[in-house]
Amino acid sequence: MKRLKKIYAFYLLFLLVSSSVKSYGQSYFANGNARSLGGNCYQLTGALDWQLGSVWYADPIDLSKDFDLEFYLNFGGKDNSGADGIVFVMQDVSNKAIGKSGGGLGFEGFSPSFGVEFDDFNNQDKGDIASDHIAILKNGSVDHNSTNSISAPVAAISGGGNIEDGLDHLVRIVWTESTNELQVWFDCDLRQRIFYDIQKNIFNGDNIVYWGFTSSTGGLNNRQTACLRDDILVEDTMTLCKGGSILLNARESKNDQYTWTPDLYLDNNSIRTPSCSTTVPITYYVEYKDLCDNVFKDTLFVDVDPPFIMDEVQDTLLCNGAGYSFDLTSKYDSIRWNSGSRNKIITWVDEGEYSLRAWQGVCYADDTFNITTSVSPEIKISGDSLFCLGDSTLINLDINPSDAIYQWEDGLSNASRYFSVTDNILVIAKNGCDSVSDTYPIRSVTLEQLNLGDDQLLCIGDTLV
Ligand SMILES: [Ca+2]
Ligand SMILES: [Ca+2]
Ligand SMILES: [Ca+2]
Ligand SMILES: [Ca+2]
Q1: Is 80 in contact with 56 (CB distance < 8 Å)?
Q2: What mean pLDDT comes out for the span 349-366?
Q3: How far is the centre of ligand 2, averaged over its atoms, from the C-alpha of 165 (Å)?
């Protein structure tokens, strides 16, 4: 099961990466001679001898829940000269699993597996019956006489008709988990019915398994195809965000007539996909005629998640290289930032506009914020600190960063000015990060009058003090 999950996770990743070219074809894994015919149809084998193909649906099936699968099988148009048939398979080997050709039906050889075979060639050594038949087997065996036979072959068509008639045959597989009941319907007739704990007896308790089809030809052949209905796995629970709406979905009906009850919170209760805007959890029943003209009733539970308001973020100034950190792990199921990051624990440091979307269940809320960055102001004062009495000195300020506002001690805020008295100049600068101050002493000086006395006569060789 672990391995299967890993493969599945990888496949999801692949889908995400290649979503621009997503098509139905990528929802399946085709192996051997199998190939997509477009839509939900696959050719499992061509009308050639010794062909071998398998197709596995990308969404695994869950045996711990009920399911009801419908598909069309076409066995080709050659009866006595045609072979070999198709097997509906559940397995947890891999999405590449493929068995043996000929009477092996592409099923023989891989285990653990569960198969419902639609066999149109009589291999007497395997316990086949003369009629085209349906049987249930396990673990890659097509031998009805072996211990791997779960239910013996019965004619596919009551009375023993031929299924290699070139027509699409509607096949329906119904699993009821509570009673471990599996039903196989062929052309609207119930042909096989077993009570068997598939999960425990075959898959060692694993409930998540691959499912799909195998097919082969041998010394005789037919072109064999399988077409899955696109609504093959209809959800039985949906969730909407209160105040919003969601499209419900029922399966294809024979006459496109539906009745949803109760007729509450629906825009139209008689169409296949009504829009539902319920504000409370509610169970709907939808009744319609299925492809076999039986009146069919499905249940769909619609749950409601409460909307919420997010208040996680504010416009923020980050100072001196600090970051804006978030830990949203406990509050939200998932997060998506405008950068594309889905991290719930994150620290932002760069300036810019940010937005995020957060989910609680299927409800989400958006928020935006701005980050600006700055550093604490720095004051540089320059100019002559000494000047002559009666003169003045020019003092310059160089304040960084540019968002800092500043003032001299008297409230003026020019970048340069003259001072003419002794002072200890105070300058204050502030921005969102900090408020700082600096001082700068300036002093006026008085030069004494020099008196060198009267002019005197000095003879060569004399000195004068
Ligand atoms: Ca045949
Ligand atoms: Ca056979
Ligand atoms: Ca058989
Ligand atoms: Ca036949």
Answers
A1: no
A2: 96
A3: 17
